[in-house]
Amino acid sequence: MTTAPLLWQPDLSARRKPLLSGFIAQASAAAGKALDNFAALHAWSVAQPQEFWPLAWEFCGLAGDKGAVSLLPDADPMNVRFFPEARLNVADTFLKNADGREAIVFIGEDGRRMAWTRSELRHEVEQFAAALRAAGIGAGDHVAGYVPNMPQTVAAMLATASLGAVWSSCAPESGPDVVVDRFGQIEPKLMFAADGYFYNGKTFETRAAIAEVAARVPSVQQIVVWPYAGDAADLPEGMTAYEAFKQKDAPALDCRPMGFSDPLYVMFSSGTTGKPKCIEHSGGGTLLRMLVEQQLHCDLRPGDRMFYYTTCNWMMWNWQVAALASEAVIVLFDGNPMYPGIRRLFDLAQAEKVTHFGISAKYIDASQKRRNRPVESHDLGALRVVLSTGSPLSPEGFAHVYADWKADVQLASICGGTDILGCFIGGCPVLPVHQGEIQAPMLGLDVATLNDQGEPVEGVAGELVCRNAHPSMPTQFLNDPGNARYRASYYETYPNIWRQGDFTIRTEHGGYVVLGRSDATLNPGGVRIGTAEIYRQLDKIDEVADAVVVGQSFDNDVRVVLFVVPAEGVVLDDALTARIKTEIRRNASPRHVPAKIIAVADIPRTKSGKTAELAVRDVVNNHPVRNLSGLANPQALELFADHPELQA
């Protein structure tokens, strides 16, 4: 693997050193030796978890009593226990120092702006918590949100947490079948919702969908709705407006003490590999991991302003909201990030003086294709960190950020997921950024790339794994006797080693290149090819608006089939087909060149916006699609079924 160009080098002599520098000094004192660089710090954090995690607790400001024992080890990582004696409630950390500083800024697609201070947020949580308690919600009960990305959603989650109850959410654009597949498994007692939402310049009414979900999930005893798109006076019978639900004379917030590993969230898998799994996560474990990721890996400080484009379907919502626990401001946006144009989010970043700007790799690619240059059109002087996730960020995407957005930023491409409510690999403010590479493994996680024999490799592709336990591993899957699905999901390939399902290369810099999902990896002639290696070449071709590549079983082998959506007004003719093949052959390899390139009108995607490669692969190979409800546009699969060009 050739050395990737250097795009950014941190200035560690600057007056404002990153928080990580201070942590390294404290870790060196705890270790009794100088930890001179990030590699040494990371090695210590993995080798001495019983010292690292308590130090991280104190340094990052997690409120609560951590107890005398930080770790109960076990040969089986699923049986390791962190802070077994701890007593805490994460709402105390989220809501600490409730003063007049801003806490949440909300920008709607329709242009409305709402801002809450830290004291206003705490007061809102107090009123919600008192109302939830009066409604019979207590520790271990489930509360659901069918909600937009709004301040009220944050307050509802924190009120749920303060009582020791468990929160789950779906975005309002999710259809009733999708929501019922998820909420029906967790059996919530109460459901928060909004009466509609805005997207792409249109208003969408959701009251009928809310009523249908409630009717099909009989555990729901009460529906609380905030009027976003309509009028609270028009709510149907059985729905309570949130202003009427709140207790205006609520007492001061008194959070229920919980164990470190007691549940707070249930997240849902995409559902493209079967019925959505209900992945339960702890409050203490996930917040401690997020504090480490945000403060030490992203240099998030009190007063910083964190924006991440997300919906309440995606774990990045939980991740962004965690920034409140570092006394940062969270800047929320709900709507189409490209309406009325690609500059919408840069307008927001400029107006709100965003310091941490998070977006998907797909958005960065779209920005590049539209020749967007905010470096010329916007004042991004406050911006210090750009975050990217959702799919592998191409080298061209890296270059676009530095050339066309801002040259002096830490570009932290991150890779993790719903499975751990965090990252395995991501940014590091004391390390350089090389084009196309994720900077480093996360502190406390023994991350590696393994070959098929379970041996660590560098410079060649293999499976991304984590070889130790850490605090934000799921506590369990719901409805999973004996943890059978949990163990099969992560520990089946390598005994006692978590396999994430991402195909990666560990680089000579100690960073990582992510090639795509390993379960969607192509294998023509026995040579493993990551799909991202093909998408990367397509990103350079403006005539291709979207694409999906899969392996088709054919003639006792696997052949690569590429489906493309041509840009508006473009036809996939012989010339464009030849150009695509040439670009792939030149910049990847002859092995990467598709045997078939076929035009289609649409590409199926999951609710979180990811390309549904597995669903397309199943249809192409005449296998049953394991869960249509996980797709945002399942009708698109019809374009691939029995396609005549696949028969020859």
TrEMBL record:
Identify the residues that the record assigns to the AMP-binding enzyme C-terminal domain, covering every copy: 540-610
**E.C. number:** 6.2.1.16
The record's top EC class is ligase
Q: Name one GO molecular function term.
A: acetoacetate-CoA ligase activity
Transmembrane feature ranges:
none
Q: Which residues form the AMP-dependent synthetase/ligase domain?
A: 99-469
PROSITE patterns registered for this protein in UniProt: AMP_BINDING
Question: Which keywords has UniProt assigned to this entry?
Answer: ATP-binding, Ligase, Nucleotide-binding
InterPro entries per the record?
Acac_CoA_synth, AMP-bd_C, AMP-bd_C_sf, AMP-binding_CS, AMP-dep_synth/lig_dom, ANL_N_sf
SUPFAM superfamilies on file: Acetyl-CoA synthetase-like (SSF56801)
Q: Which family does it belong to?
A: Belongs to the ATP-dependent AMP-binding enzyme family.
- The protein here is known as Acetoacetate--CoA ligase
